[in-house]
Amino acid sequence: MTDFDVGARLRELRINKGFSQRQLAEAAAVPHGQISMVETNRSSPSVATLRKILGGLEITMSEFFEPEANQVNEIFFAPDQFKDLTSRIYSDRPETRGRMALKQVGNAREHGLQILHETYEPGADTGDDMISHPASEGGIVIAGELEVTVGDSVRILKTGDAYLFNSREPHRFRNISDRIAVVVSACTPPYL
């Protein structure tokens, strides 16, 4: 994979939107200096922070990392047609590489619905920084077990168990077992 210049891409999108760094920081509810640090590649934002910044631009992570993605309106998808979001989203976290896979079905933005096939190796974790974004999400564990934290609620979900919550609540996913966990999830509006 070629190196992706997060700072240059963020700067390009901010300018296209007509925002100053301060305006984007206010829209995203992040410190002004953080936008400058990211744009100059002096700081690599966490996934949670990057999501907040992109929320201020009203774009998804997928749109940020794959601006030229094929927009064909497909109906049916084979597994090899799923869009792998993992390598781009978690490229700055070596401890996650190869331990988690997030694969999107089709064009989430076009349909206002993001469907993911998620795989968590033993020890995989979305990170200490809890995730939050303006959406609703749910999923079903189809193999293994996964610890899901939403706000102050924590539960280990086993095969067949499901979750559904307001994604504005800080949340986290961890595989604390010794087996692979697989989840099929949906989120609206799309956030990755």
TrEMBL record:
Keywords: DNA-binding. It comes from the Bacteria. GO terms for cellular component: cytosol. InterPro entries: Cro/C1-type_HTH, Cupin_2, Lambda_DNA-bd_dom_sf, RmlC-like_jellyroll, RmlC_Cupin_sf, TransReg_Diox_bact_type. One of its GO terms (molecular function) is DNA binding. Residues 10-64 form the HTH cro/C1-type domain. The keyword DNA-binding applies. Gene3D superfamilies: Jelly Rolls, lambda repressor-like DNA-binding domains. The keyword DNA-binding applies. PANTHER family: HTH-TYPE TRANSCRIPTIONAL REGULATOR, HTH-TYPE TRANSCRIPTIONAL REGULATOR PUUR. This is Transcriptional regulator, XRE family with cupin sensor. The lineage of its organism: Bacteria, Pseudomonadati, Pseudomonadota, Alphaproteobacteria, Rhodobacterales.
